[in-house]
Amino acid sequence: MSPNPRKQFDGKRVLVTGGTGSLGKTLVRRLLDGKAGDAKKIIVFSRDETKQHHMRLDYQHKANATEEVIYRDFEQKLEFRIGDVRDYASVVSVLRDVDIVINTAAMKQVPSCEYAPYEAVKTNIVGAENIVRAIQEQDFPVETVVGVSTDKACKPINVMGMTKSIQERVFIQGNMRHPATRFICVRYGNVLASRGSVVPLFIEQIRKGGPVTVTTSEMTRFLLSLEDAVDTVFGAIASAERGEVFVPRAPSALVMNVAKALIGGRKIKITTTGIRPGEKVHESLISDEEATRTVDRGKWYAIRPMLPEVGDQKVIKSALSTEYTSSDNVMDLKKTEELLRRNSLMVDEVSMAAGEILR
Q1: In CATH, what number is assigned to the domain containing residue 183?
Q2: Is the pTM of this model over 0.70?
Q3: Which of 111, 155, 164, 202 is most buried, taking the most CB atoms under 10 A from its CB?
């Protein structure tokens, strides 16, 4: 734990796996602004060379992708490395001399995971195991590993949630395999404007004149901005104890109200299509069983590890008496609209950034 949580990245070499995704890109931008400390090196690790190329162009302030880009990648603070968390050798290579690992690499689309379950296993579970195994076998002096998880890992009913739930366990048990490294996780719900999430889908449908498709009128979801998601990661790095899962106190909304707020006064039809394979009506961030070992950490809850070898097993005062679900304290339509507007996600407000959000 950093003695000054606001500067926890000072002089650190930070690895972001899946760093070209929506969360990864926001993490990198926040790391580069220096407000949480002046990192020595930020490494973006992913398997998509095209996304890395465009991300590199963004940071080099090039006007378009047709310009020749000459870069001394390994001499810059921001470094791009092609690789895959599924591949043990490339994980070993990129982990050398790293202080902090933030694992955002994932298969996260629920239907995709249902139709290709073993592909989800390889990325979400084997990828996590490769990180722990590399640190253990190579005895790398990594200080902290953060596994980024999802509300679908809580009482999972779909492949995506099942694999993320096991990923959490792999990282938590990693504390036993390499005690010199602190393995922690963060878990949260729908990230507004992230690639593949419901808001960009609704915006695209509205731009095309509709209809806007909602699976069921009763469905609720936790809603979190990309900035809040990064705050949760940074908060966990600053103060989480070994084996803890950090969970933000997030608002929830009816998905139907999200659609209505985005449509506004436009004459666009909303149709219900039925629940997709592996989808829940409501999500939970903390289960009944986990509630008994959940503590209050201000803006977040922390789920203490169940393994006695990882946690200190001291008697705690539980912050919750029951599960933490998106069906509790649901925002009304007005508050849902205010949340979207506060995050500049109303249709008219994102027109200039449409290419980025919908990419």
Answers
A1: 3.40.50.720
A2: yes
A3: 164
